[in-house]
Known about the structure:
six-stranded antiparallel sheet, Jelly Rolls
Amino acid sequence: xxxxxxDLFASALHFHQDGEVRADERQMTGSASGAWQIGVFHVxxxxxxxxxxxxxxxxxxxxxxxxxxxVRLYLRPVEGEDAENAEAADELVRLTAGTAxxxxxGRWHRLELEGPSDLMSVTLRQGTRLEKRAGTT
Length: 137
């Protein structure tokens, strides 16, 4: 294999179980490839991080990394917790440049920006689900 430069803002790195690493299309929802994905994103608005949706990865944890800027990561209450007002019960993690959080497997989460940012996500996208937030259009 000849080493080649990869633009991480245009594609993602996919790490396969057999040890192969490929630069390929970024996938935001489910993938049947079984590959872990590292994606880097420049984001400027809440729409760029689908802030109007919850996201969940049923088969793996996700590392959400803030490389520059700042972001608020909200974790939805775990099912079974008393959450009459779900929005008020969301757990908030603030990320600044150089920080990361590991989102537990199967935990619904979403992002909102503090301002333009560069983010990195590392997860197994297989089975990823998106769910529209209540009260958003």
